[in-house]
Amino acid sequence: MDAVERGRPGEDALEELRVELGAQAVLTGNDIPLRNRNDWSSKPPAQPLAVLRPSNSEEAARAIATCRAARLPFVPQGGLTGLCGGATPEPGWVAISLERMVGIEEIDPVSATMTVKAGTPLEVVQRAADEAGFLFPLDLGSRGSCAIGGNLSTNAGGNRVIRYGMTRDLVLGLEVVLPDGTVLTNLNKLLKNNAGYDLKHLFIGSEGTLGIITRVVLRLFPKPRSTTAALCALSSYADVAALLAGARSGLGPILSAFEVMWPDYWQVVTERLKVRSPVASGHGFYVLVETHGSDEATDAARFQSWLEEMMESGILADAAVAQSHAQVKDFWAVRDACAEFGTGLGPHISYDIGLQVGRMDSFASRCKTALEAGIPGCESVYYGHIGDGNLHLVAWVAGLPLGEQPKDAMDTIVYGLVREMGGSISAEHGIGTMKKKWLGHARSEAEIALMRVLKGALDPENLLNPGKVISL
Questions:
Q1: Which CATH architecture has domain 104-222?
Q2: How large is the average pLDDT for residues 143-147?
Q3: Which part of the chain is the FAD-binding PCMH-type domain (predicted)?
Q4: pLDDT tens digits, residue range 325-345?
Q5: What is the DSSP secondary-structure string of 143-205?
Q6: What's the predicted TM-score (pTM) here?
């Protein structure tokens, strides 16, 4: 079903929306920005029939109802930083961008909540919480570009899941426009609310296939009064596992991040990207440990005592402790250097998988060997959050442009091992279209069948982001 087949009804619908919403809300032809043709995935870009830019939920509902009446498929778009093609349109589709639905509506210091419009960038949310004396703990490398609605749509993870949970754990209420144009408003501020089904969880993580999130009530947390961090070097993965267990028991609830870097990642970051590190190269693993606490003197002493205990037990080969907030940021620069892989490595394919912590090093070793043996010239590096079961890897063949990277062969090897080792093909990035064919590696036939039932019930005409995650 493309724009040519629809003919005038699509054009008439867009003209109707121009009259109702204003010319600034309906972009067509050469007025459509290039950014609306794709997200950050390697999926080929596509020109939508139009980009609709509602300014509130009522306008979004009107846009959806009009698209539905004209049988125009439509895809929601936020910051377009997704990596799986979930926000990418197909030719003849309409993109509904939330870029004008931006702003903090309320910060309630008593209930420790923030009500925010879905198009608001994550960094704006973080800054508003900070200025109000709170912390909004969700943190991603794309914080300046990604939109909070998209974070909910993909149930984003990030750096501090081990302490604060996934995005769904940070949401109390939301407003969503259903595929038929109904506005479902439940801006709940209650942590305890068991009055029937908790419908927000239908939409969080559904990647814009069941409804379009327009407003959100977020949980806020006390701003940490102390932050400590150490960059640790270890000899083996057994030591990494022992350090994680020691951190959980010795640091308890103040443990906020546990980031692990394999030596291949370390080599790329320090040698190719020239990122300076406070610990020497040549070790088996590198771990960034961070805490958020409430008493600077007590927490610093506790952290130092814990590190000394780990050193005396032989778990640590070396460690550097941050002496200031600036040094904490410097430590994170080593872990966040993966954002510069496009410069340091050239074209590459990124993977985001979930595994039991005890199986991660075995996976990394087997995967690296399989990629090298199965794909001539294939290199790969491994890193991840680990404490929450999330491993990232990047694979590439040097000298090949992105479109010629052997992604299908890489996918077969990586996801085949994931299935064999009982993991997930997506820990935090979603499915979209890029991972859709592999969904059965992580979900049972019964689970996928139920997903289809939900999609068919809410979107029987299959017009909202059709073909993403599952097919009807």
A1: 2-Layer Sandwich (3.30)
A2: 94
A3: 44-223
A4: 999 999 999 998 888 888 888
A5: TTT-BHHHHHHTT---TTHHHH--GGGGEEEEEEE-TTS-EEEE----S---SS--THHHHTT
A6: 0.92
